[in-house]
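subagent[fold] <- orchestrator: predict structure for attached chain, return tokens only, no commentary.
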Amino acid sequence: MMEYSRREIAPGVWLTALHTDKFKTGCLSVSLLTQLNRERAAENAVLPYVLRRGTAMLPDMRAVSARLDGLYGSGVEPVTRKLGEIHAVGFLANFPEDRFLPGDTDVLSEIVDLCAQLWLSPNTRGGLFLPDYVDSERTKLLERLEAMRNDRRSWALRRLIENMCAFEDFAVSSMGSAEEAESIHYVKLTKDYRALLAESPMELFYCGSRDAAAVAGAVENALMLLPRGEIDLDLGTDVRMNALEAQPRYFTEEMDVTQGNLAMGFRLGACMEEPDEAAIRVFNAVYGGGPTSKLFANVRERLSLCYYASSSVDIHKGILCVSSGIDFDKYDPAREEILAQLETMRRGEITPAELEAAKRSAANALRAVEDSPLALEDFYLSQTIQGLDASPMDLAALVEDVTAEQITEIARGVELDAVYFLKGEEKE
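subagent[fold] -> orchestrator:
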């Protein structure tokens, strides 16, 4: 049994709490929300890593790590996420529940205090971040950005979004760009950190055995010195129902690869006027979201046009992406068959077996969320961004009631917007 509550505990500071005795470990996240944009994304992404380097009381990573070791191996890690066109940056902590520890312990209060220190009392000199810390984390961010190229599948999807949404903030990665990362400077980062802290909504999530009132009390005490100015509550995502142009746009790039990566981007269309998350999840499961989907069964298995083919949906932005690994000469037939499978759904050609398998897959994935505090944290942050408070079990129950007619209606509104193909370099 999980008891859900949500309350505003300070101006622009909200706590979502799940009271449960199900787990041996607890979870706490403290995130600031801001609008995703090209100019600040890399700076925001590097910020929690710089803050994690040390506080006024724990001046370096060795001291922070020693403090965590003293809390029975608890962990506090930087985290940066992109939810539609909202950027969430902060810290995610996991820690053992007190009832499994010896003596009279209160690990939660210590973790809350440490997270508050990381946000409010960084190690500074003359009121500015330490240049060595900022330079080091900037280099690591650039390395992470460069490493993205090594995962060709993810890289193709990223390049699809960058091209497809070139005039939208959604094109920006949660880590920003290398160009912006290279310009990160400790003076400007300090200034922007203070503005972010004063102006951004703060979202806290707790999952564990403490009741919500006790958690709220601990958080309120720890964040008493949180500076609050005019909170920017006007955050959101620009959802575009239709493709940018009358005809799909095509993009091709070459890289030293032995397998082609085909990525196709669609706008979900009219269903995003009042999104039905349960129906959209089942639609995606029927189309390409699992081993029983049309893309897997037909494009990969029956026709052998690809090594893999799957689809995913960004419910915040209303975008459907298809990812496929293919031989270079299979580009045309694979692309045509991916579109053909969508067309079968538009015609209502969804068998009872396909529908039941998709609903079972989507519902099971949601139920599995309740098996992990970290998965619950991610789920409820997404729900909060959407202005919803449905539990995974609530959503799973709705999934089981989705009809084939609802899936067909969604499919009829979907529009192909852009196609990206990553192929091998031409031989001289």
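orchestrator: received. Logging for downstream: The longest helix spans residues 352-369. The chain is about 40% helix and 25% strand.
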